[in-house]
Structure formats: structure tokens, C-alpha cells
Amino acid sequence: MRIDLHAHSTASDGTDTPAELVRHAAEAGLDVVALTDHDTTRGYAEAIAALPEGLTLVTGAELSCRVDGISMHLLAYLFDPEEPALLAERELVRDDRVPRAKGMVAKLNALGVPVTWEQVSRIAAGGSVGRPHVASALVELGVVPSVDEAFTKDWLADGGRAHVEKHETDPFEAVRLVKAAGGVTVFAHPAASKRGRTVPESTIAELAAAGLDGIEVDHMDHDPGTRARLRGLAQELGLLTTGSSDYHGSRKTCVLGEYTTDPEVYGEITRRATGAFPVPGTGGV
Questions:
Q1: How many angstroms from the chain centroid is the CA of residue 183?
Q2: Is the pLDDT of residue 285 over 60?
Q3: At CA 243, angle to CA 266 and CA 151, rounded to 5?
Q4: pTM of the entire structure?
Q5: Which of 56, 103, 255, 280 has the CA that lies 20 to 30 A from 48?
């Protein structure tokens, strides 16, 4: 089985619609793909309706969190999307995205960059607006050559000249909320240092003690040495290890199935989940 547990659609900051995402996942030879848009489940219905035969969809989300002043992302799988407490927290995070993006536009304007909110909004196309949409605007204007180049201290990285903080959930509270909604939690790209400061291993240990299920080890932002270190940490803490592409369509260079999750780990994730179940494809529309 080929299993990719981290992918985004136009419901957040990917460039594939949910329907296109599942079709591309099937074309890439995947057996299982997870839809993990940022702080939203809005893409579920379209993805399920288009799900090709032979492909299984894992419903999920990537939750925006912050601990000790450090941003981090928590992948949540197979939770009940209507559970009131988790839904309220996702909406709180999502509602803060627009004023945050407008704040980044204002900072860029002050730096002499002629980006507009209308441009960023057009790029977001109704999805949960975020830094990648602002980064894409900078690419359109020729300010930077690629989205990745926008995530530096000169521009949008944490602490960068045009960075604006947003509401982010305490990860210990996020783990509790996801568990209460019947879901499973995995710390996304925990050592992706090029994105900014990363949480120390002591915090990962505390999260494990609080109920964190796993860490994403095989990821494009982790070099081989980092993956080996994280795998050892996971073994020490009794955490599951996953591998994923973090696919965003054409917005990033990674491709579906670039990194995958071991079928036994996937099986354990589905065994632990009680809020929802993987959806098998029946041919789509």
C-alpha cells in the first residue's frame, strides 16, 4: 500500500480542488490519501463525491498551534468534524486569518511592495487564506522567484519584516480537543527549521505524555540525519512515525506520494480513531 497522510486543496492553500486532489492521488498510484487542509474541513464533501474506486480518503485537518512563542502544526485525523468544542476552536483560528493576511499586506505596502488585498483574496479563491497566498502574490509581482523564497526573515517567515501573528491553539489543548472528538494527532514536520523556530524535544516529550499519537518524520523539510534523529525520539517516546508529501499542488515542488506512511502505522491510526472512519472510493463523479 502507498499511503500519503498530508495533502492540501483549495479549501485552504493548495492549488488542486478537493476533487482534483483525489483524482491526482489515484493517478500517482496512492492507495490512501489524507485531506488535511488548514483549520478547515470544508473540502470533505467534494473529495468524497469524486473519490475514485481503489483510493481511500482519510479525513483530517492541519491545526495551527503555538507553544512558548513557537508556531507548530498538528495533523488531526478521523475526528468528528461536528464536535462542538473542536469546531469552535477551528472557527476561531480560521476567522483570524483574514485580518492577519490584511496586516501582512499593510506591512508589505509599508516596505514598498504594491501587493493588494484584492490580489491575495483572488489567489486564495475562497480558501482559508494564509501566508502561502501572500507569498504567491509576491511571486506574481516578481518580488521573489518562488513561494519558498517568500518564507525568509526579509518577508513572511516568523519574525520576518512582513510577518503578522494570528490566533493559534495551544497544542496541549489541541491534542485534548482532537482526542475528545475521537481523532488521532500527529505533529507535522516537527524539525522543519527553515520555516522558523522549532519546538524542543522536551516539548515533544510533554506532548507525548499528554496524548500525542505520533510525529511526521519522512517529510521534504527533514534531511536524512534529522529523520534518523526523529525516528529515535519517536521510539523512545512510544510515538507513531508517519511520512507524507505535504502536497500543495503547484504551490510547492513536492509531489503526491513523495514520502509515505507504513501500512502498519496507518492501521494503528485507524484503530485508534473513533470520530470518523476512512472512506473507500466508489468511482467518483
A1: 16
A2: no
A3: 140
A4: 0.85
A5: 255
- Summarize pLDDT for 178-225 with one digit per residue, the tens: 999 999 999 999 998 877 789 999 999 999 999 999 999 999 999 999
Q: Round to whole Å and give the CA distance between 151 and 156.
A: 5
Provide the grid cell at 124.
Answer: 486564495
Instruction: Say whether 204 sits in a helix, a strand or coil.
Output: helix
81 contacts 110 by C-beta, under 8 angstroms: no
HSE at residue 89, side-chain half, CA atoms within 13 A, is 21
pLDDT at residue 95, rounded to an integer: 83
Residues paired with 66 in a beta bridge: 71
pLDDT confidence bin for 243, thresholds 50/70/90:
very high
> Which burial class, exposed, middle or buried, applies to 141 when counting CB atoms under 10 A from its CB (0-12, 13-18, 19+)?
middle
For 42-147, strand residue ranges (E) read 56-67, 70-77
Q: What percent of the chain has pLDDT over 70?
A: 99
H helices of 210-272, where? 224-237, 263-272
φ, ψ dihedrals at 108, nearest 5°? -65, -40
Strand pairing class (240-243; 214-218) = parallel
Are 78 and 279 contacting, i.e. CB atoms less than 8 angstroms apart?
no
Q: How far apart are CA 190 and CA 192, in angstroms?
A: 6
Please tell me the distance from the alpha carbon of residue 130 to that of residue 123, in angstroms, as a whole number: 10
Residue 56: in which H helix or E strand, if any? strand 56-67
Query: In the structure grid, which three cell numbers stand for residue 142, read together?
Result: 516578481
Cell of 36: 488535511
Condensed to tens digits (0 to 9), the pLDDT of residues 137-169 reads 999 999 999 998 999 999 998 889 999 988 899
